[in-house]
């Protein structure tokens, strides 16, 4: 199989068909009270929801990655940010996180300390308490494997799920696509990029990693009529559009020219031979709403750029338009979080 997310066909056939959700009962992690499962595993669904007896709803999500080298600590912190983004898109406030780390036998203690420092600082900055976890050394891994399981709190009125997406709703995209991927490429291939572009452009592209939180736009959108929300990550905007449509059981029609993209992303992707529509795009939020322009105005008043890029439809076709040209959105073949430029091994 290809490295990255399991292809959707295999996910449906060998994973989701084996998972039975909707009637499960679990214990509240803080009070021990019984929680009823309200929403479980599904295509495009980044969080599971459990209703507590207090009237609150707990949202669960998880992210994991293999980390190594100089960027290991940064990648570890990024996992916490991705969990926070998943929770924000679900309308939940981050509360706590559990962290599991599997380490190779040759790993030095200094590496463990660096990873935990990065994870702790990320959790503190995002308002998450580290509630526990597990740390093991094993022959089974070549590099550290980190899993972050985060819990957030919301209520029925503020909860957002892909089932809330309906035909006829506008599709809104916040900020710009490719922010996460652009930052990764600019840092990884800095010298290659400097041979073609001035240093200020490369540095600006590398700084996009500071724009990866979607908490504020999720809050503003939620207060102004947002229905479903889905944060962009692996697979980029094309992957997110497919997951949203598949999770909602709907079609869509999107104008490619309306998808916002920074010029720095265009330049970096041109040199690296990467498709900006398919590379990691953490930092952007996909929103559905009856009145997309109202949400765009509210976001812009909060200093967050956004644009209406299309609509959901009651057909199954997922259409991408560029002036007179029409193409159909392809099913993701397996979304790889690692960006590799053409000609590089």
Q: Nutshell version of this structure?
A:
By secondary structure, the chain is an alpha+beta fold.
Describe the structure.
It is globular and about 55 Å long. Strand 2 and strand 3 (about 50) form a beta hairpin. Helix 2 runs parallel beside helix 7 (about 215-225) and helix 4 (about 180-190) packs across helix 9 (about 265-270). It has a seven-stranded mixed beta sheet with strand order 1-2-3-4-7-5-6. A seven-stranded mixed beta sheet has the order 9-11-8-12-10-13-14, with helices on both faces. It has ten helices and 14 strands. The chain is an alpha+beta fold and about 350 residues long.
Measured as a percent range, the helix fraction is: 25-40%
- Tell me the CATH topology of the largest domain: Phosphoribosyl-aminoimidazole Synthetase, Chain A, domain 2
CATH uppermost class of the largest domain: Alpha Beta
Shape: globular
Q: In CATH, what is the homologous superfamily of the largest domain? A: PurM-like C-terminal domain
Classification by helices and strands: alpha+beta
Low-confidence stretches: 26-31, 33-37
Order of strands, widest sheet: 1-2-3-4-7-5-6
- Taken together, the total number of domains comes to 2
Assign the CATH architecture of the largest domain: Alpha-Beta Complex
> On the 0-100 scale, what is the average pLDDT?
86
Main sheet? 7 strands, mixed
What would you report as the Rg, rounded to the nearest angstrom?
Answer: 20 Å
Give the oligomeric state: single chain
**SSE succession:** HEEEEHEHEEEHHHHEHEHEHEEE
- Secondary structure: number of strands: 14
Quote the beta fraction: 25-35%
Treating each run of at least 4 consecutive H or I residues as one helix, how many helices? Answer: 10
């Amino acid at each position: 199989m290809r490295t990255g997310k399991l292809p959707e066909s295999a996910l449906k056939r060998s994973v989701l068909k084996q998972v039975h959700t909707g009637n499960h009962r679990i214990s509240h992690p803080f009070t021990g009270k019984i929680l009823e499962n309200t929403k479980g595993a599904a295509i495009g669904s980044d969080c599971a929801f459990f209703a507590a007896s207090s009237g609150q709803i707990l949202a669960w999500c998880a992210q994991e990655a293999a980390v190594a080298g100089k960027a290991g600590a940064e990648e570890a912190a990024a996992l916490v940010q991705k969990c926070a983004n998943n929770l924000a898109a679900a309308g939940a406030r981050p509360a706590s996180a559990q962290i599991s780390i599997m380490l190779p036998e040759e790993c030095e203690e200094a590496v463990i300390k660096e990873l935990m420092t990065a994870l702790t600082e990320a959790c503190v900055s995002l308002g998450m308490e580290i509630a526990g976890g597990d740390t093991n050394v094993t022959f089974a891994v070549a590099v550290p494997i980190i899993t972050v399981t985060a819990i957030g709190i919301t209520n029925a009125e503020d909860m957002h799920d892909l089932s809330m997406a309906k035909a006829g709703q506008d599709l809104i995209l916040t900020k710009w696509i490719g922010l996460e991927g652009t930052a990764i490429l600019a840092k990884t291939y800095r010298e290659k990029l400097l041979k073609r572009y001035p240093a200020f452009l490369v540095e600006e592209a590398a700084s996009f990693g500071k724009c990866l939180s979607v908490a504020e736009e999720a809050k503003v959108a939620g207060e102004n009529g947002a229905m479903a929300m889905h944060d962009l990550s692996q697979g980029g905007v094309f992957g997110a559009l497919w997951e949203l449509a598949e999770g909602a059981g709907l079609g869509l029609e999107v104008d490619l020219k309306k998808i916002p993209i920074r010029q720095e992303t265009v330049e970096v992707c041109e040199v690296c031979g990467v498709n900006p529509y398919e590379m990691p795009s953490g930092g952007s939020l996909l929103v559905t709403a009856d009145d997309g322009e109202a949400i765009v105005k509210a976001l812009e008043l909060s200093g967050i750029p956004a644009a209406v890029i299309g609509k959901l439809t009651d057909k199954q076709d997922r259409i991408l338009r560029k002036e007179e040209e029409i193409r159909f959105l392809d099913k993701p073949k397996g979304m790889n979080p690692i960006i590799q430029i053409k000609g590089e091994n």
